[in-house]
Design brief:
This protein is α+β, with helices and mostly antiparallel strands. It is 16% helix and 54% strand. It is built from three helices and nine strands. The protein has an eight-stranded antiparallel beta barrel with strand order 1-3-4-5-6-7-8-9. Helix 1 (15-21) packs across helix 2 (23-48). The two termini are 32 Å apart.
Length: 238
C-alpha cells in the first residue's frame, strides 16, 4: 500500500491577528496544528512499521489530551433578579487522562480536567439620578481529578485500528468563583463536589503509537471531548 503524506501548508500572515481576536479560534487552531503534527509523526512511524495491528494491550500505558465542548458550568450559570447576562469569554475545558492496561480488555485511568472562563454580566443600581448599570466579571476556575475503570470492546466491535471503550468512575471537583452574584451583592464562592464519571468513546490508531481520540458522556463538565493519545507498549520479555 502506498503511504499517504499530508501536503505542505503555508499559513497566511493574518493568522496572528485571528489568534489575538478570537480565543476560541485560537484553541481550535491549536488542536488542529497539534493533530497535524501527530499525524505527520504517525505517518513516518507507520512507514517504518507496516502490518502492525492497533488494539488494546495489557500492560500498555496511554496518555490522552482532549478538548471538551458544550461546557455545563458555562451553560448552566444562572443570575438572580437585578442582573443581566453579557458575553462569556475563555477557553474550552482541557482533559488529561493516563490509562494503564490491567488486562487485555480492562484499564484503570487517572483523569484530570481544567475549566476556566469569565462570565460577564451587568448589575442594575438605582442612584439619585435614576437607574444605571455596573458591569461585572466572575472568573470561574474549575479543577477536577478522579479515577475511572474502562472496558475496551475491541473483541466485540471488530473494526481495524479502532479501540472502542466504555468507562465509569468518580471525580472530585474544586470550583472557585471570584465574584458570584448572591442576592444583590457579589461574593467569592468555593465549592467542593463529587460527580459520577460515565464515558463511551473510541480511539482510532493512525500508527502503532498515535491515535485520534473522542468520547461522549457525563462528568458535569462537558458532553463531548476530542483529542489525541499516545500508546506505550510493554517491553517484550526476552
Amino acid at each position: 500500500m502506498r503511504a499517504f503524506y499530508l501536503p505542505e501548508c503555508n499559513f497566511p500572515l493574518i493568522l496572528p491577528f485571528i489568534l489575538l481576536v478570537c480565543p476560541f479560534m485560537k484553541t481550535c487552531l491549536t488542536l488542529l496544528l497539534s493533530l497535524c503534527a501527530i499525524t505527520g509523526w504517525a505517518q513516518q512511524d507507520s512507514a517504518s512499521k507496516k502490518g502492525t495491528q492497533a488494539y488494546y494491550v495489557r500492560g500498555s500505558v496511554i496518555p490522552s489530551v482532549a478538548f471538551g465542548f458544550i461546557d455545563a458550568y458555562r451553560n448552566n450559570y444562572s443570575l438572580p433578579s437585578g442582573f443581566a447576562k453579557n458575553n462569556t469569554s475563555g477557553f474550552v475545558p482541557v482533559y488529561i487522562k493516563l490509562e494503564y492496561g490491567l488486562t487485555a480488555n480492562i484499564g484503570l485511568a487517572a483523569t484530570l480536567c481544567y475549566d476556566a472562563f469569565n462570565y460577564n454580566f451587568s448589575q442594575q443600581y438605582v442612584g439619585s439620578n435614576g437607574p444605571f448599570l455596573r458591569y461585572r466579571t466572575d472568573a470561574f476556575r474549575g479543577f477536577s481529578s478522579g479515577l475511572a475503570a474502562f472496558y475496551h470492546l475491541g473483541n466485540v466491535i471488530r473494526v481495524k485500528r479502532l479501540d472502542p471503550f466504555a468507562g465509569i468512575g468518580l471525580s472530585i471537583n474544586n470550583l472557585r468563583y471570584n465574584a458570584y452574584p448572591q442576592g444583590d451583592s457579589l461574593a467569592i464562592r468555593t465549592d467542593h463536589t463529587t460527580d459520577l464519571y460515565v464515558k463511551v468513546g473510541a480511539r482510532y490508531f493512525i500508527s502503532r503509537k498515535f491515535s485520534l481520540y473522542g468520547d461522549a458522556g457525563y462528568d458535569n463538565h462537558t458532553i463531548f471531548s476530542f483529542g489525541f493519545s499516545c500508546r506505550f507498549l510493554p517491553r517484550k520479555k526476552s
